[in-house]
Design a protein that fits this description.
mainly alpha, globular, 11 helices, single chain
Length: 204
């Protein structure tokens, strides 16, 4: 019963995750193809680049939101085991990263990750993820390495603090997905510099 329900919910999470809301917001709200901006990804960041804060926030909320409902239902309504809920969450990320609506291309799945983590009752996962990505943002110049620091740091913390847990397996899945999506950008060596200092120097 659990396996059949998990497959059904994982499929639903994948399809919802695959919906390129940011791309649609750009097309309908801005009359622009957001893949022509920034890094070329169909994600919310490029909606900010192509449009304004209001439109960008709409796209961001939609991308976060599509990672939330199926995972929430799987845990709080059906009470599935945590490992199966984690698999459903990864399905949402895979949908965004490899969308059939975009010929199995897609975004980096960062916003969707926040949606999945919000849906889980283990809120410490969200806190850890945010702490690592904010810390990396302050010290690492390249965006790719900044995003990689969140699942990598979270995985290291979970292994040390909790050992072999479903939480560590979930974060390992996130890390592998991020690596696949950004492998070209990760060929460069990360550069470290305190960004607030650089910002202050540029303003001086």
């Amino acid at each position: 019963m659990h396996i059949s329900l998990t497959i059904l919910l994982a499929t639903a999470a994948y399809i919802l995750g695959a919906c390129p809301f940011s791309l649609w917001v750009g097309q309908w709200g801005l009359n622009k193809d957001i893949r022509e901006y920034g890094d070329g990804n169909p994600g919310a960041v490029n909606v900010f680049r192509a449009g304004d804060i209001k439109t960008g926030l709409m796209a961001l909320l939609l991308d976060i939101g599509k990672g939330f409902p199926v995972v929430f239902i799987a845990h709080f309504y059906f009470g599935l085991p945590e490992l199966l809920v984690a698999a459903i969450g990864l399905s949402a990320l895979l949908g965004h990263a490899f969308s059939p609506f975009l010929h199995f291309k897609g975004g980096k799945a960062i916003a969707v990750t926040f949606g999945v983590l919000l849906a889980l009752p283990q809120h410490h996962l969200l806190v850890i993820f945010i702490v690592f990505i904010l810390t990396a943002f302050l010290f690492i110049e390249q965006d790719a390495w900044t995003t990689m620091a969140a699942p990598a740091g979270s995985l290291a913390y979970l292994i040390i603090a909790r050992g072999n847990s479903w939480e560590a397996l979930f974060m390992l899945g996130v890390l592998l997905l991020y690596t696949i999506k950004q492998h070209e950008s990760l060929k460069t060596i990360p550069r470290f510099r305190l960004k607030p200092v650089r910002w202050y120097q540029s303003r001086s």
